[in-house]
Design goal:
331 residues, alpha+beta, Arylamine N-acetyltransferase fold, eight-stranded antiparallel sheet, five-stranded antiparallel sheet
Amino acid sequence: MVDFGARLEAGTKSSASETTAEASTSRSARSNTKPKDGRAAEMVFTQAASTEQLDAGTMERYLRLLNVRARTPSLPALNELVSAHLTRVPFENISKLYYRKQLGLTFLLDIHRSLDGIEKFHFGGTCYSNNFHFYSLLTSLGYQVKLCAADMATPDVHMVSMVTVDGREYLVDTGYAAPLLSPLPRDLKADYVVTLGRDRYVLKPQDAGGRSRLELHRDGTLKHGYLAKPEPRRLEDFSKVIADSFRADATFLNSLLLARFWPDRSVVIHNFALIQAQGAQFTVRVLADRGELIDKIEEYFAIPRPIAAEAVDEVGAMQDAWGDPFLGGRG
């Protein structure tokens, strides 16, 4: 049997050896304490654990994992990057549950451990990790990009990017478990609609404050959404909501949500439901038990079974990940 804990530790050491002096300085901001239960040393990450500017080696590795080459910033290049990220880096909270147990994680993984997870365990991440690291990649590639906040049930609880290309601003969200495979234009005169299966995503024209409202309609009913605000933010502005996302009552400690996308289809596991969509068609299958749930996580997401099993055991109430009828849930 593969010792995934040893691989995790080895990956951490390997990442550390590959980082620059800047990354080493960032790591010095972490405090490490041994949990009382004897688990691996707890890692409490501060905002210094992640950086907005990637060094050349890290950027090259990120692009390699996306199977994309570096190009001069342009709309076609941005489209390629967004599509590659959505199709190669899934939305999933298995890694959050697993790293919380194994490492005592209470903040974002730094970029090196995040890329390790993508490469070795087929991880992706939730809102904060997927969106912040992609924002850092865009910044490093020379894009004019802002890290922005969006309101759900809690103000400023979601993270998105707003990217300006050729004088036009686009909303980019690689962390909403949604098939937003291309940048969404913000200078709209009418609704911009993306549909897949039973889900319909509607981006509204900006309101008087320059904010963009994205709505998720499921089976014809408004299910969820957020209000994205154009003011630029920094990672430290999200410190509290990120920390809150590791509280015992947080959404992604009490539900499972994994989503993988292709140009015209998707596979989603939400608690014990397996949802597959292609074009306008979709199927929903209720999984029989924990064993079948773990089987499907391994089958459709290639996350190693021992890791999936350990993460599933950490889930609390198996609540609805989309929360309230609109603007719900801490990520």
